[in-house]
Automatic annotation (TrEMBL):
<dbReference type="GO" id="GO:0005634">
    <property type="term" value="C:nucleus"/>
</dbReference>
<dbReference type="InterPro" id="IPR050164">
    <property type="entry name" value="Peptidase_C19"/>
</dbReference>
<dbReference type="GO" id="GO:0004843">
    <property type="term" value="F:cysteine-type deubiquitinase activity"/>
</dbReference>
<feature type="region of interest" description="Disordered">
    <location>
        <begin position="698"/>
        <end position="743"/>
    </location>
</feature>
<feature type="domain" description="DUSP">
    <location>
        <begin position="878"/>
        <end position="993"/>
    </location>
</feature>
<feature type="region of interest" description="Disordered">
    <location>
        <begin position="1038"/>
        <end position="1065"/>
    </location>
</feature>
<dbReference type="GO" id="GO:0005829">
    <property type="term" value="C:cytosol"/>
</dbReference>
<feature type="domain" description="USP">
    <location>
        <begin position="157"/>
        <end position="490"/>
    </location>
</feature>
<dbReference type="InterPro" id="IPR038765">
    <property type="entry name" value="Papain-like_cys_pep_sf"/>
</dbReference>
<comment type="similarity">
    <text>Belongs to the peptidase C19 family.</text>
</comment>
<dbReference type="InterPro" id="IPR001394">
    <property type="entry name" value="Peptidase_C19_UCH"/>
</dbReference>
<dbReference type="InterPro" id="IPR028889">
    <property type="entry name" value="USP"/>
</dbReference>
<feature type="compositionally biased region" description="Polar residues">
    <location>
        <begin position="1046"/>
        <end position="1060"/>
    </location>
</feature>
<protein>
    <recommendedName>
        <fullName>Ubiquitinyl hydrolase 1</fullName>
    </recommendedName>
</protein>
<feature type="compositionally biased region" description="Basic and acidic residues">
    <location>
        <begin position="706"/>
        <end position="729"/>
    </location>
</feature>
<dbReference type="InterPro" id="IPR006615">
    <property type="entry name" value="Pept_C19_DUSP"/>
</dbReference>
<dbReference type="InterPro" id="IPR035927">
    <property type="entry name" value="DUSP-like_sf"/>
</dbReference>
Amino acid sequence: MKEKISNDLSYIKAGYRSDKWKWVLSLPVVSGGGAPVSSLKEYKTPDSCGSSVKGASPDIVINEKSITENSDHPDTADLLVKNNGPNCFLSSSKPFSEDQLTKEQIMKTFGMDKCPKALPCQKRCSSNPWCLADLGSGTGKEKIRPTDQPRDPNKPVGLQNTANTCWINSALQALFQLPKFRNVINGVEGFAGEESLSCMLYLLQAMFVEMDTHANKAIACSPGSVFEKMGLFATQEIMRKDADHEVLKCVSEFLENTIDTLIADPRLGSKLSPLFNTNLMRLARWKCPTCETEHESHLAPATSYTMAAYVSGDECPLDQCLVDLQTETQTGVSLVCGSDSNSPGGCGARVKADRIVTPKIQTLPTILVIRNNSLMDRDLKRRLHVVYPETLDLTSHTLNHVAATYTLSAVIFHHGHWVKHFSAHVKTQNNKWYNFNDEQVSELTNRSTAGNPPESHRNYFSIANVANKYKHRSGLRVSRGAFVWIYVRSNTAEEEIARVSPPESVVEYVLQKQEESMTVNHQRQAEMKKEKEELLSQLAVFDMSEEFSLISEPLLSAWFNDDDLKYTPQPSVLAQALCDHKLFSPLKFHMIKCVRTEGVKALLSHRSGIHEDDTLVKLGMPLFLPSESGCCKQCIIKAVNHILFIEKVKALHKQAKKEARREHEGPTQVIGLETLEFWPRLALSAYVKENGIDLEGEEEENGMEISKKNEDNVKNEDENIDSDTKVDSSHVNGNGCEKTDIKPKSEGMVVSSCDKTNLVPETDSIIACDSRTGDVNTDLDLKDKAEKDFGNSEKKLSNSKGNETKEGSSELTLFNEDIVCRHNLLSPTAYSSKISNELAQEIMELCGDSIHPAMYQEDFDTCQDCRTLLEESIRACSSGRQQKKQLNNLYLEKKRPHPTRDTGKQIFLVSRDFIAAWKTYIRACERGELEVTAPTHLENAPLLCDHNHLLFPVFSLQSHQMTEYLVLVWEEEWNILKELYPPDHTITASFSDAGILQTVPSMCESGCVEVRAAQDYEEQFSYEHEIIHVRQVNSVNDIPRRSRSTRGAQATTPALTNESMGPRKKPRLAALGVGGGGSVGVAASITGVGGSAGVGGSSAGVGAASGSSSSSSSQRLVRASKTFSSTDTLREVQNFIAARTGIWPMLQTLWVCSEDQSDSGEDLPVQLTDDHRAMTLNALRVRPGDTIYFRAAVEDMERAAGDGVVEFNEIEDDW
């Protein structure tokens, strides 16, 4: 449903505060004086309500109350007389210019006109630019930062984030909690004080001592500190190695480059390399296609300090995502049989063969660093959950199956592609897990949450239902944002590691720096706080007559709250209140404060004040602006003209709707009723595009500052606007009508019972009202009696094209597109009205390029082709309605001949294809469609074979089976159908005393019936976009046994069984899956473990079979459905199962129900092997609605299905 047009015609809804821009409505209509905008109303005809102005044109009437209220403009009436035309202020007003802008208007726009009674203001009114008390009170709440709070000695320390250093903080926290790494770093001597801090080794030594001995909850990045030197060195030296440096992967690059830098140091290389070095030996196996000799060889080993992972499926286990450990199949490799091989023999021929390369870990690292490369994939549409264990077992990937178990030590999270933030979960040496988010440090929890887990949850950055699934899974965690995992080998993690103390010189240096910083900083911060309060008091304006300047409120707030000894603002802080012209924007009035000019000078020169750097000077961003020139007049003018344009469009919209309800003597132009209602959107859109107005930004910025009182005012103003301009949507959409008691006040005005607003003339009101019941009366001329009679004869015929236009598109895109037919002429079924040419031209000028090209034709008249089609449709619809009355029982298929009740009576057979086409024709007539096609003749040929005998064994078919192919009709009904639609074949029949249907002609005995049954049977296996179900079971005993008659007859014995007489009925969800464009639609039926099976009529649930294991009764298993085509292979079904459950294809065991004969007469489940993967569903004899059963290995089901129902209840329309 379209939003009310009144919202578009309100300047308040466009983002302009009513109290700041109300003065625009009082502007003179033209330069040099005149009536204000608010006093001018649309002209009214002499017989309309309102009193005329003496001496004015009879077409002009002005509201007397408006003139009285605006006594400052005595020349309003003269001005109206002078313009002497409809809507004079709209047609003659010029754009508001900067020369007309006064200082008073600027003060009103920025809210500076309301000065507090007492200065300086102490009421803490945040919206008043003269008040600074709220700024001081907001910053005086004594909010102590973690960098100033004392630290609990049993908890780790946080790191302050300055200039986007969250990636350094997360990496340092992870490295600090690695005892062996710290021992290697602390074991190097040679620290020589300040000059040594240009080396990564000594920076880490000093940083680790700082993190171990710091007295506060977080380490501040103060000037000259070790932490600041670490940040500078990391960004300038470590990260410069990467040309494609991005914030997305900087934490992993920092870890890798730090390890490379440290290992390159000869003092550390021999000790640090074994901690991270992973040596992979690659074992290659291949078979010679000539002599069929199998070869095995070792390829060149690979060495790395980190390992890569790629998550390809949701909730995929981490050990299955390790790219470096995955087996690779190399196709078409040129090899020599017998050379460089550990296997004896070989023909010596050079061949191209497929080689399987399996990596094996030859050297195990002590610390294993894994990076999630899937988070850097820009083509990845959504983040996938990865399940990572607290104990990672890589024994199966080692060369000689050496025990290789790793314990999780740290996880670094990446917070989205747009947020670009990092945090970490790290296990400390006392085996407690903590969340490190820069300064904030909190202990991890596993408590249940109503929504998504918070950052202190061990399953952080995962969806709520997925997190709850793994809540009680001991040793497993899940996340969508895990970027780096750090594991420590278990035999080294559990053993007691002797701590190596850092060099004494490093400890002395750090402790000395801490003492100096604590003494100096505390004294300086106390002095700075007093100085800032004094500077703030000097900024407050005491007298309105003194000189004042404008400054950004975010800038003042950031300066007052900053704890640094020297504050230099960021450009983003200054830009908040500025427009594109680098002046204060009128739409951001709430971000501006008025301050004394002398106080600003003191603020910029004081040591505790605001300091400007070279960056701000180059960008040309001012810290403050003079009051006379600081307000952007260009933005004010743009906003004023936008508001005036909105008011102009609102007035024209109201005027056009009033013109549409009266008769016209002069030249007129046709306008569609939908266009009449919604053309302002086209005009406003064209104006916004032409003038570059950012409505979204205005609404967002202003909407945040609107108080509750102003919202109430807005609501009241909107109600007034609605009462003046709202049009009943039933005239456009034809959805309903309401009664009204409004009385007409002019001649020729007829108020219909459904005309709520009395804005449509009599003829168009009939059209609008008739749209509810299907009546159409178009292009009606009151002087043309023949046209009127023709229009009345179209009763109960709906406008199919008009409905398509309004229902098919959500918005009007072109002016009058709702009345143009496909021949680019006026549609005879369009809902339209008429307005004067002058008004229509003015409206079209406002709409710009959004005009339908057909409107520029000189001969834009009613389309004769569509009119002819309409006449034919009327006649066809009339005939169709008459046929439904005559054959109502046949249409409803009621009171059909019965085998026992109607024996001996003559009846006739009619094909189901004809009845379906006839019903479609009747329904089109009932809907009143524009194009209605009736059947040409009664076709019974589908019921007969080439020998002119029946193709169906009607004597053995049940009633519900017979109705799939034919319909039994009475003799009276046959006579009516025969007159309307000449039959190609007549098939008579009657029921015998035994209830057997005897037909003339009889059933074919030449084999045609069997051939047709076989063809129908085969057609069941040729389909597109049909539903196939997949269902997880614990064993083959859980597969429900079904009678063969419920699934279909065999192709080898197609004769005379009930199911072989035609195609099976489509599954209920199959109709939803047909949409074209590929087999990607997904549907599912969610049921519990003991619920209905949903296929074949069996009610046995998964786990209900007697052969199930004891655990199957409580296991929640997967059921899902998807649309497939018969040409799809089993491999695609396996991929679908893997995508929905996380069970990889090689872990799946599948069954389908076989049609092999058995003594029990049931379909037996047949297990599918790897040889079946390339076979199509047609070859596997899988039909629409069939179920493919699967299971996973017991050890993998825990990861695959979870502890909840992994099922889906909708179709994903991806095509």
